[in-house]
Design a protein that fits this description.
- The protein is mostly helical and about 55 residues long.
- The protein contains one helix and no strands.
- It starts with a helix and ends with a helix.
- The model has no long low-confidence stretch (mean pLDDT about 95).
Length: about 55
Amino acid sequence: MNVMNENLARAQMSARLGEAQQLRRGYQLARAHRMTRRAELAASQARTALARAL
């Protein structure tokens, strides 16, 4: 009986770890998208400023 409880606890812990890793990947992906948008906006603003300066 004790072995079954240990196996169940291991399985649950493994599942929780997998969920946490998926969440972390999701957060990292969302952050990368935000940073990309900011970089694109900054590049656009720099092009506009350069065009005005010429």
